[in-house]
Write a structure and sequence with these properties.
By secondary structure, the chain is α/β, with parallel strands linked by helices. The protein has 13 helices and 19 strands.
């Protein structure tokens, strides 16, 4: 199979889909690899690094897209500076693998079907044990959770750890983390390593043991009247969307913890939906000047009422970071992990160098959005009506 690695065109994207070490492994499996000039440069990988491992340099995107059987990307396809949409630049029957976000951009799936391009969405890989090595969403949000805490620490005018000095004792910083998914758990671990006191809120009671194993203090969630709060556990490690009444109870519960926090990291997301609003303007106003909020859900509306995606808002001395695309701030390791995820996927869907999509396979069913000119993913089809 002829695999193509383009240079990412989304603003601020520094990652590359496949790195040189993976090129060597794929060539050993019988694939040929082409890459666009400077595709890996922003991630720390030169053209010479790719050529050394056996990949062929292609000077322009148009030639690359038109010739490959599989195009591997990080970001979803967009209008290319060369003049056409990336999907229009691909040959009919080719396969695109990358973060596609079909539940958020279903029209892109429709466009892919019209162009005769098959799509495997890396954000739709099932979060199962069998698919663990391909789970790019987890590998990238893991890094994002780490980076969010570093941003919070850098923005805080205090140190994180307890420090006993001849001049007196410095109390540890208090960090509140909202959401204990992959990003939240890594945020807990990072904040604890830096020496902070960490409190964690999540509507899924089953994560309590994980939180406490990392040294965090679990904030017990409220219960909906007549229901066990465990009913808010959703599939794939996510929480399901809560009712407005439940969110109000949760905000009331969190208000005291947030008022005393030095840093708040929010990670709560529901796939395909607007992020739940957990931190109100009033709660921000209760925080001490100099405190920091890092909102990891900024791209989907934000968990904080005052968040603006891609901006740092100063509200009475409290800095609210509307962070976007955090993995792109650690491009070397983010690309390394994503490249390994893609290699695992390619190994899974090919045999002796040839593509073999088993439409009855659970991983293929979960991640294949478009096939042979039709949108086949049930949820994306539903969104398209």
């Amino acid at each position: 199979m002829n695999i193509g690695i383009p240079k990412e065109i989304a603003p601020g994207e520094t990652r590359v889909a496949i790195i040189p070490e993976t090129v060597a492994r794929l060539i050993k499996k019988g694939h040929t690899i082409q890459f666009e000039k400077d595709a890996g440069l922003a991630s720390g990988f030169t053209n010479a690094d790719y050529e050394k491992e056996g990949a062929t340099l292609v000077p322009d995107a148009s030639t690359l897209y038109a010739n490959v059987d599989l195009l591997v990307k990080v970001q979803r396809p967009l209008a290319h500076p060369a003049g056409k949409h990336e999907l229009e630049m691909m040959k009919k029957g080719a396969l695109l693998a990358g973060f596609f976000y079909g539940l958020t951009y279903p029209d892109a799936a429709k466009k892919a079907a019209e162009q005769g391009v098959d799509v495997i969405s890396m954000d739709a890989i099932p979060r199962t044990t069998k698919a663990q090595r391909m789970d790019a969403l987890s590998s990238q949000t893991n890094l994002a959770g780490y980076k969010a805490v570093i941003i919070g620490a850098n923005g805080l005018g205090k140190i994180f750890p307890l420090m006993m000095t001849a001049a007196g004792t410095i109390s540890p910083a208090r960090v509140v983390i909202l959401g204990a998914g992959v990003a939240g758990l890594q945020a807990i671990a990072t904040a604890k390593r830096l020496g902070a006191v960490v409190e964690v809120s999540d509507v899924r009671p089953e994560v309590k043991e994980q939180v406490e194993s990392l040294g965090g203090r679990y904030i017990e969630p409220p219960r909906e009247e007549g229901e066990d709060s465990a009913d808010l556990s959703g599939g794939g490690g996510y929480a399901r969307e809560a009712t407005p009444e439940y969110l109000k109870k949760q905000q009331e519960l969190l208000a005291k913890h947030i008022a005393e926090a030095d840093v708040v990291v929010t990670t709560a997301n529901v796939p395909g939906r607007k992020a739940p609003m957990l931190v109100s303007a009033a709660m921000v106003a209760s925080m001490a000047p100099g405190s920091v909020i890092v909102d990891m859900a900024a791209e989907s509306g934000g968990n904080c009422e005052l968040t603006r995606a891609g901006e740092v808002v100063d509200h009475n001395g409290v800095k609210i970071h509307g962070v976007v695309n955090l993995p792109a701030q650690t491009p070397y390791h983010a690309s390394q992990l994503y490249s390994r995820n893609l290699q695992a996927l390619i190994d899974y869907i090919t045999k002796e160098g040839q593509l073999q999509l088993d439409l009855e396979d659970e991983i293929v069913q979960g991640a294949l959005l478009v096939h042979q000119g039709a949108v086949i993913h049930p949820k994306v089809k539903e969104l398209l009506g």
